[in-house]
């Protein structure tokens, strides 16, 4: 088989190209999604910076307990219909009414369940009656979300990325504006509760303007069963995913206190910001993209390697740079009261790299119609995590929690890579090549920044910004030199994208 760059390029985009030039849509759409994620994370970042100076860690922790309760109420009743609709190759409009009807009935039920059962149980679990009030207020979110037009998921399937960006930004803007105004007046977690309600309300309203299809209250048992055959694994995966992604929050909230949960959640948000968000943005595109080429294993292999190479070239130095400047970053961004989160931040920065890999691998298994793989691996991860998290948290506090999550993520990614090797013949040598040069460049950059701190300490914002710029220059200079020495793989991957925009 000819695996030269021009042949791979023609085959890769030829597999997606239709009369509407889908290959062009994919690449342009990817940049739109990146732009969207950048704007969204920038807005959330600004929001968090403002709130961190208006509210206290305990306020974030109390709200976190309420949202955990809401999520836990929902997670056991996921149907996975949205993922099933995305995975289907044929036109799916005939399924939309059934999917919307199921979602509406389910959400009304969930609202009652949270108000009458979930909220009181949360108060007992966290030993905090204030959580009951916040959780009950959030029950209205389920009802609002139930009326959202389900056809908006077709924006992703049809690669109408410009409309998807408008839709996604509408809810975020409503949330950010609401929370900042409310926090200035209320100075309490109620500002965060009102923001979530504003977010879902905006999404529900805009969903009827962004896509022409109008759902009707209609149920077809045959179509529901067909969707459930795929969606059940997504639903089961969602339960395990909650335990893996938010089980640590439950443990911190239960074994420690609201302030510790606030510290841990903000450390998690900051630590995963550079690495996970880039991979998550790509994941939204990779699922339908891999579904289109699911029958060509060699093309899947090539695509995964090229995409991963570019992603890790960006996220490894970002995580290493933040690790070197962690204390200064937290002080400048959130304020001195948040410095106790720095030790656990170091652990989370390592975890973020594994999570980024997760966001690159899982869309591939979803795209080839094997969601069961990710579900089983998540189950293994949850078992490992919960076998470690309670004793480690009791002994080492938040750092112990982070270490338990890190260990379980390592096990999960190891298993996923073994499965990936079987599915697309991914070799260990290829994986080493993906991370080797970025790792050398990042270590060089981190060492330079670390020793520079003994000469000029970044204790003012201008010097801190100068450190960030210097780190970027050092890293990309090293990567450029190494890439030219070892075959220009990163340059080739960039050209691959540029020639198909």
TrEMBL record:
It comes from Candidatus Portnoybacteria bacterium CG11_big_fil_rev_8_21_14_0_20_44_10. InterPro entries: Poly_Biosynth_Transport. It is found in: Cell membrane. Keywords: Cell membrane, Membrane, Transmembrane, Transmembrane helix. This is Uncharacterized protein. Belongs to the polysaccharide synthase family. The chain crosses the membrane at residues 38-56, 62-86, 98-121, 133-154, 166-186, 192-211, 232-251, 263-287, 307-326, 338-361, 373-390, 396-418, 430-451, 463-482. Pfam families: Polysacc_synt_3. It is a multi-pass membrane protein. One of its GO terms (cellular component) is plasma membrane.
């Amino acid at each position: 088989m000819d695996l030269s760059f021009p042949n791979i390029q023609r085959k890769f985009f030829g597999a997606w190209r239709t009369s509407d030039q889908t290959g062009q849509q994919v690449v342009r759409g990817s940049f739109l999604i990146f732009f969207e994620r950048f704007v969204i994370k920038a807005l959330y970042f600004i929001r968090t910076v403002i709130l961190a100076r208006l509210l206290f860690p305990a306020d974030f922790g109390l709200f976190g307990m309420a949202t955990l309760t809401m999520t836990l109420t929902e997670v056991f009743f996921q149907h996975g219909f949205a993922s099933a609709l995305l995975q289907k190759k044929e036109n799916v409009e005939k399924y939309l009414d059934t999917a919307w009807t199921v979602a509406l009935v389910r959400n009304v039920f969930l609202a009652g369940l949270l108000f009458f059962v979930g909220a009181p149980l949360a108060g007992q679990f966290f030993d905090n009656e204030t959580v009951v009030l916040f959780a009950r207020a959030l029950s209205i979110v389920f009802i609002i979300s139930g009326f959202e037009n389900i056809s908006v998921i077709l924006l992703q399937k049809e690669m109408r990325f410009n409309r998807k960006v408008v839709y996604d930004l509408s809810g975020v803007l409503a949330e950010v504006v609401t929370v900042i105004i409310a926090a200035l007046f209320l100075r309490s977690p109620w500002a965060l509760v009102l923001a979530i309600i504003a977010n879902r309300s905006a999404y529900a309203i805009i969903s009827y303007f962004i896509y022409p299809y109008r759902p009707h209250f209609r149920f077809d048992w045959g179509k529901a069963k067909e969707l459930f055959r795929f969606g059940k694994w997504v639903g089961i995966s969602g339960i395990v995913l909650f335990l893996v992604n938010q089980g640590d929050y439950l443990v911190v909230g239960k074994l420690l206190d609201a302030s510790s949960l606030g510290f841990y959640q903000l450390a998690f948000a900051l630590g995963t910001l550079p690495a996970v968000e880039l991979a998550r943005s790509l994941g939204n595109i990779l699922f339908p993209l891999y579904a289109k080429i699911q029958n060509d294993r060699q093309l899947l292999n090539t695509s995964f390697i090229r995409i991963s190479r570019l992603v890790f070239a960006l996220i490894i130095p970002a995580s290493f740079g933040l690790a070197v400047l962690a204390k200064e970053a937290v002080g400048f961004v959130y304020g001195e009261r948040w410095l106790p989160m720095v030790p656990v931040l170091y652990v989370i920065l390592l975890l973020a790299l594994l999570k980024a890999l997760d966001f690159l691998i899982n869309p591939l298994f979803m795209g080839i119609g094997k969601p069961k793989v990710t579900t089983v691996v998540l189950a293994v991860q949850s078992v490992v995590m919960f076998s470690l998290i309670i004793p480690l948290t009791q002994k080492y506090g938040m750092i112990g929690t982070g270490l338990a999550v890190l260990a379980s993520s390592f096990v999960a990614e190891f298993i996923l890579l073994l499965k990936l090797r079987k599915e697309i013949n991914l070799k260990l040598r290829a994986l080493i090549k993906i991370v080797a040069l970025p790792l050398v460049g990042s270590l060089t950059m981190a060492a330079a920044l670390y020793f520079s701190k003994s000469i000029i300490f970044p204790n003012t914002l201008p010097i801190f910004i100068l450190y960030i710029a210097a780190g970027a220059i050092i890293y990309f200079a090293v990567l450029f030199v190494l890439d030219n020495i070892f075959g220009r793989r990163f340059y080739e991957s960039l050209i691959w994208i540029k020639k198909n925009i």
